[in-house]
Structure prediction request, 173 residues.
Amino acid sequence: MTARAMALSTSNQRATDALDRASGYVLRYGLVLLILWYGVYKFTPTEAKAIEPLLRHSPLLSWLYGVTDVPGASRIIGGIEVIIAALIALRPFNARLSALGSLAAIGMFATTLSFLFTTPGMFKPVDGVIVPHGGGGFVIKDLLLLGAAMWCAADALRAGPLTIGRAASQPMA
Prediction:
């Protein structure tokens, strides 16, 4: 390899490393911002009413209306989302808590994506192609957010595995 080729290779590696670091921050804190934003929005009457049909048809979340009203269910979900966002944001300070928040986000987005199959009217045929319709177009974005949460979980777990139920110094079986 020539000196010029080695210099280009080194320069390319530095640029790739910088892009990799920057993309991680954008992915993590973009995810945090969106979860936080929608979590806070769930404390409004508008969002409580908007998510009601999704929750009512969900076998996973419809029980909330048995223990509280529409605004109360929305506030419970919003509070959980705010906590999840805060946990993910802790990555520079506590990777384990960030991993826990990221794993919770994976569960949250999997639950949200289930609405596509449990809520009537989420898809509609248009010119012979079935496309997201109504809330389906909004919910389907969570597929990308699920991927972001999975990346954040993997990144945080690389820094230190969760050791729930055993001392941190005990080896995992």
